[in-house]
Structure to design on (333 residues):
């Protein structure tokens, strides 16, 4: 697993903010980031060229509804668990199967990132070209879709966005769905993975971050699991959290309707826990909802971010033993 590398040297993708640019408290950004109603906020001429320029990390249902079926636009359903293989889907959606081909099942932790060759093959089999634009959603709202977005980014693909509110927001807006059909059987794509070091990190890197006063490690699990008062859903894992980590449940970044909070509110939520630290690492149960924090941090203007791929499924194992505590800690100082 690659170690953390500052992303300051990464070239910004089309429609993305340049590294170091901050989002104002009013949520002002570059690119097509939606408001709560699902509009992109882009000027009409910019919106017309959004497929050419890339959508940014988050799009609303209005953005997608205006472009559904457009050449070069691929919609992925990245649902997991009870929502995986649901009977209904957004028209034309293809399965980005995190419980299937899009994870390394030979790894000890679930949802481990596949190698570059395996990832390339899986995404090509889904018909994705390097020039395509991808929008990812899931059936829970914003839960596992952010994991697919982060994986694509880690493999060098910047033309991907998460659908704000996911399938629940789509159906709440009265937009059409279709019966889920068989697995995708269309033409293969030309996608090629170009891995970026440092976006997915290992346990040793996280251990160093916990001891680094310039970094913060944020845990996206529920407060009860973080405190060790609720059992872990995976058998054999210890309860509690990493000493020095702070708790930011991923659902706290979403409003009551399941949409991501405005950029200014997101920035405030992160700063309340991390102060002015800019180097952030994210963990959760198996590396899935940690990516919701990564999405929120991106929208809030953070650029030095990484996801712990093994997350608690690895750290919480009884052997090899990593330090675990149940002492309360909710702020990073």
């Amino acid at each position: 697993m690659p170690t953390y590398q500052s992303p300051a040297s990464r070239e910004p993708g089309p429609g993305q903010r340049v590294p170091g640019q901050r989002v104002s408290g009013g949520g002002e950004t570059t690119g097509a980031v939606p408001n709560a109603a699902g509009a992109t906020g882009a000027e009409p001429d910019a919106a017309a060229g959004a497929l050419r320029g890339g959508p940014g990390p988050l799009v609303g249902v209005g953005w997608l509804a205006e472009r559904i079926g457009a050449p070069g636009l691929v919609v992925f359903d990245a649902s997991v668990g009870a929502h995986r293989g649901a009977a209904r889907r957004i028209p034309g959606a293809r399965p980005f199967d995190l419980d299937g081909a899009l994870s390394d099942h030979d790894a000890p932790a679930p949802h481990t990132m596949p190698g570059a060759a395996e990832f390339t093959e899986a995404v090509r089999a889904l018909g994705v070209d390097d020039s395509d634009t991808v929008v990812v959603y899931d059936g829970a709202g914003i839960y596992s879709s952010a994991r697919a977005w982060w994986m694509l980014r880690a493999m060098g693909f910047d033309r991907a966005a998460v659908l704000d509110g996911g399938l629940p927001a789509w159906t709440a807006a009265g937009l059409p769905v279709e019966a889920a059909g068989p697995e995708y059987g269309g033409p293969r794509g030309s996608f090629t993975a170009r891995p970026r070091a440092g976006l997915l990190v290992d346990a040793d890197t996280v251990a160093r971050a916990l001891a680094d006063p310039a970094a913060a490690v944020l845990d996206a699990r529920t407060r009860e699991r973080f405190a060790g008062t609720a059992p872990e859903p995976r058998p054999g894992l210890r309860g509690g959290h990493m000493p020095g980590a702070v708790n930011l449940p991923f659902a706290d970044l979403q409003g009551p309707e399941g949409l991501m909070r405005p950029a200014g509110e997101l920035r405030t939520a992160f700063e309340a826990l991390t102060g002015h630290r800019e180097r952030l690492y994210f963990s959760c149960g198996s590396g899935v909802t940690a990516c919701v924090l990564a999405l929120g941090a991106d929208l809030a203007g953070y650029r030095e971010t990484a996801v712990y791929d093994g997350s608690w499924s690895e750290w919480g194992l009884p052997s090899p033993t990593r330090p675990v505590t149940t002492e309360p800690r909710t702020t990073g100082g």
